[in-house]
Write a structure and sequence with these properties.
The chain is mostly beta strands. It has no helices and 5 strands.
Length: about 80
């Protein structure tokens, strides 16, 4: 699967999650292989635009025993 996709849609969430504090950004990313994937986006909300290129990146969530490593999306070129 490609690491670079196109931002389809995004939203800022104001309800905290046990692994990270609010607000945070989530969205859907379309990949050239025909997949649409949902995940957290690590970027400034004001910098995001529908249709922009984003890259899949490894991101840490939580702290201590609750810490996990998972994928997230970042603006392409900033991974």
């Amino acid at each position: 699967m490609s690491r670079i996709g196109t931002l389809y849609s995004f939203s800022r969430v104001h309800t905290p999650h046990k692994l990270y504090s609010a607000p945070y950004i989530v969205g859907y990313v379309d990949f050239p292989e025909g997949l649409r994937v949902f995940g957290q986006i690590r970027a400034n909300y004001e910098d995001l635009r529908i249709g922009m290129k984003v890259a899949t990146s490894a991101c840490g969530f939580g702290e201590g025993e609750d810490a996990v490593l998972a994928y997230c999306f970042v603006p392409a070129g900033k991974e």
